[in-house]
Amino acid sequence: MEPIGLYLHVPFCASRCPYCDFFTQWPVGDALTVYAETMKTELRDTRDQQICADSVYFGGGTPSVLPGAVFADLLSTVRDCFTVTPDAETTVECNPSSDLETFLTAAVEAGVNRVSLGMQSAVDAERRKLGRTSDRKRVEEALSIARKCGIQNLTLDVMLGVPGQTLQSLQETLQFLIDSGVPHVSAYMLKLEEGTVFYKRAASLDLPGEDLVGDMYLQTIETLEAAGLKQYEISNFARPGFESRHNLKYWHCEEYLGFGPSAHSFFRGERFYRKADWEAFVSGAPVVPDGLGGSFEERLMLALRLTEGYRGDIPDELREKASQPLLRPFLEVGDGFIRLTKEGFLVSNTVIAELL
Amino acid sequence: MSDYRNNIRNFSIIAHIDHGKSTLADRMLELTESVSKREMEEQLLDNMDIERERGITIKARAVKLEYKAQDGEVYDLNLIDTPGHVDFNYEVSRSLAACEGAVLVVDATQGIEAQTLGNTYLALDHDLEICPVINKIDLPAADPERVSAEVEEVIGLPCEEAPRISAKTGENVEQVLEEIVNLVPAPTGDPDAPLRALIFDSVYDSYRGVIVYVRLMEGTIKPGDTMRMMATGAEFNVVEVGYMRARSLEPAKCLRAGEVGYITASIKTVSEARVGDTVTLATRPASEPLPGYRKVNPMVFCGVYPADGADYENLKEALEKLQLNDAALSFEPETSGALGFGFRCGFLGLLHLEIIQERLEREYNLDLVTTIPSVIYKIHMASGEVLNIDNPCNYPDPADIDFCEEPITNAHIFAPPDYVGPIMELCQERRGTFKDMQYLAADRVDIHYELPLNEIIYDFFDALKSRTRGYASLDYEILGYRQSELVKLDVLLNGEQVDALSFIIHQEKAYGRARKIAEKLKEHIPRTLFEIPIQIAIGGKVIARETVKALRKDVLAKCYGGDITRKKKLLEKQKEGKKRMRQFGSVEVPQEAFMAVLKLDE
Asked: What is the average pLDDT score of chain B?
């Protein structure tokens, strides 16, 4: 059996960012203890040493709000329940404003070898509008703490199209990414999700227009690639060998198991998820089936997010659709592959919807 | 034996929209115990969903009430309900012709409105005895004295004795019934004369065929008789006659002069029992029909297309079913290069159009695309030929046209004097010709304009309401045709003409409207992978232009904890959205774009 990925959702945040609709809550009362115990129960209920994992990913929320001991205990439970390969990519998402000195010392000790820092922007004015409480200096400190703890495999998250952003201010953020020397970067375009503060206040946000955001995206690709951070997915860039093993599993339609509220799984051909609901989580509600995974359409839709695109036989019908004049500028079709161009990435929704 | 006619009263209730006509009818049903309170559904007389939601009565209904009056006698009160909107003026006039009296309901908080007066004049035309009633006295803003003075002054009806009621609470409603007994004359007419019965409504019932609602003026009819429609000459065998009760039809041995009742005779469509026609007997026909019949002609036309071409047959069936009950609705097949197969439908007015559209969507679950409504233009060709054009697609080459005519209406707008300015401005914008202005009372002005019908059918009601905060009311009738400078506007998307968006307009307004249409289309056509030029042209000349820029950014956001399904659903939604769009050459136009072009003033 191929090694799979393991995802653990940590549904806590010290503060709520106004653009985020992920499932989180405040780590108050005995919530942390209840969380840790419930996670361990979920893991033990799925326990199977036959299952081999070469990636463990702690996402959130903000995993770095967990006390180091709680985190270490969780990761050791993961190792008890599944066969985690010695070279497994073990990532934890961190917020620069957490007490990283304490947390990362424990996390690295427990086996973490990759750290993802949610920076969002190197421009403090932009960071404030995004609800990030730490400043740029704090991000620099966080990076040096991580390195001091022995982590070289670092990734920074940034956002494009945030309130007040211009091409100049973006350049500042990109320069920061390059100067920091991190081997991996994720750059996501801000999307207004229903139910968030940003969604309600959209009109008053001073958001850059569609065309400007398009320019920002292309500038990001160009600047990062020139600095050796090669784009390998719509929103992800890495020095060779530092591509995220965990995220590639999603795009390669490989299997993974998710734990914790709102975590999704694709396992033994089936997709299922755990409810984004604290009560359901605590009471041990069963997973919710989400249909079969791995169809051709699904693999195509996912693979087209990668710069290498979809590799395999291209059915005639798809080849025909891809060759219509309308789509031609956005696609490259060759022998055994189909992929989006950089302009194609920008309108990938429309193009993929046309193809499916 | 005393004359049966002495204990019959035939009456209507007339009122402006929302002045409480239906509520009063409900209370009357309760008071005469035609319906018990427990069974009482709000506004029983209006039994279509849409009527209830819009608070207006679309089709006339009638009911017989038995009332024991203070004089100890039991009276048959035949209440004939009337539609409350200008689109249905003809139906109103037929209902009134079936009565000897009318209860005029006036809102004690609002006073006389356009349709109060319009309907009162109609009732006076039919020599009806009018019993004014001041309603809604339970409301804090009610001023019954002021309103009754207004009625006396404007209409010339003595109002001192008029019942002050609250149809809502039931207060003093019995007084209204007494007024009807005392003031409305009993019907006359010889039951032994040749039959003359006025059809004031007809409804289709899938079991019995058409149920014809009649008022017998003279003569008698009974099952087994052969009846004849005097206008169409059609003959039918009478199966059943009887009275309309609140909850059911009550069969009777016969109907006699002066009575209101129903006839069934295996009639297949309502167009064979047209409102206003006279029923007589084949064996002993009357020599003259009752006066006032005319075939109602549609005034407003538009194309109605199924959003999904596969629904064409369903749309056809639905229209056929609606037509069984609505002789004023016309339709014939039409093809549009852009919209495919559909129907050109004719309506009495814009409200009628909206009601039919809503019923098709709601009751028949159809997704529709409707084109811009049009009136009938008379195009005089250089050859001398005159074309009646209700579809812009049939508009001839301007070079062959001598001159054009368009329908003009006589419009009365009632409003408080504060709004005279904005109203006159609106009427001027809509090419109105000012005729007259009268102060009906200190706070009520009647502004009289001649307005082209095609200006009224473009959102005139909405514009009037928004400019007068809902205080103005409108009544209009068709005056005739008048020469006019018309042009046809064409819309081109990416160089291709969209026939469904063409329309005919007065030359003066062409530029302004073209600009607005271009802007609206730009706003509503989603950006796609290529740039779309929007052009509005007269003949070959482009008079307005906009561009929908090519789509720049459309990327799915971050993958949330491996949630692939969310992405899949987003893509599926995007594909679904495409299905609801119309393909014009290479351009896809969402339905909202059509709607937006319709309602330019918003």
From this structure: 85
Strand segments, DSSP code E, in chain A are 4-10, 52-60, 83-94, 114-120, 154-160, 184-189, 230-233, 236-238, 256-259, 264-267, 270-273, 288-292, 310-311, 331-334, 337-340
Answer whether A327 sits within 8 Å of B555, measured CB to CB.
Answer: no
Q: Which residue has the higher pLDDT, B465 or A97?
A: A97
Is the confidence at residue B42, as pLDDT, over 80?
no
Interface of B with A (CB under 8 A): 527-530, 549, 551-565, 567-568, 570-571, 574-575, 578, 586
DSSP 8-state symbol, A64 = G
Q: Contact at 8 Å (CB) between A77 and A47?
A: no
- Cβ contact A19:A273 at 8 Å: no
Q: Does A248 touch chain B (CB under 8 A)?
A: no
Q: Helix or strand or coil: residue A113?
A: coil
The pLDDT tens digits for A135-170 are 999 999 999 999 999 999 999 999 999 999 999 999
| Band (B602; pLDDT cuts 50, 70, 90) | very low
Residue-wise pLDDT for B299-358, tens only, equals: 889 999 898 888 999 999 999 888 877 778 889 998 887 778 999 999 988 778 888 888
Cβ–Cβ gap A256/B562 under 8 Å? yes
* Cβ neighbours for A226, distance < 8 A, ≥ 6 positions apart: none
- The count of CB pairs under 8 A between chains A and B is 103
Q: Which residues contact B190 (CB under 8 A, 6 or more apart)?
A: B218, B219, B257
Nearest to B543, CA basis, from B577, B586, B503, B513: B513
Q: What is the pLDDT of residues B502-536, one digit of tens each?
A: 889 999 889 988 998 899 899 888 888 888 999 99
pLDDT band at B595 (very low <50, low <70, confident <90, very high): low
Which residue positions in chain A have pLDDT lower than 70?
none
- Across the interface, do B571 and A210 touch by the CB < 8 Å criterion? no
DSSP secondary structure letter of residue B398: G
pLDDT of residue B54: 42
| Residue-by-residue DSSP string for B55-120 | T---S--EEEEEEE-TTS-EEEEEEE----SGGGHHHHHHHHHT-SEEEEEEETTT---HHHHHHH
A61 touches chain B (CB under 8 A): no
Average pLDDT over residues B573-579: 71
Asked if A348 lies within 8 A of B553 by C-beta distance, the reply is no
- Look up the pTM and report it: 0.61
* Cβ of residue A341 closer than 8 Å to a chain B Cβ: no
Q: Do A326 and B564 touch (CB under 8 A)?
A: no
What is the number of other CB atoms lying within 10 angstroms of the CB of residue B431?
18
Instruction: Report the candidate in A85, A81, A82, A30 with the shortest Cα–Cα distance to residue A55.
Output: A85
Check CB contact of A7 with chain B, cutoff 8 Å.
yes
Residue in B530, B551, B562 nearest the CB of A7? B562
Residue A294 forms contact with B (CB below 8 Å): no
A337 and chain B in contact, CB less than 8 A:
no
> Residues near B145 by Cβ (< 8 Å), separated by ≥ 6?
none
Kindly determine whether residue A213 and residue B553, on different chains, have CB atoms separated by under 8 Å.
Answer: yes
Nearest Cα neighbor of B475 from B349, B593, B311 is: B349
Check residue B559 and give its pLDDT.
60
Asked if A59's CB is within 8 angstroms of B565's CB, the reply is no
Q: Which of residues 220-239 of A touch B (CB under 8 A)?
A: 234-235
Helices (H), A82-166: 100-110, 124-129, 136-148
d(CA A327, CA A340) in angstroms, rounded, equals 10
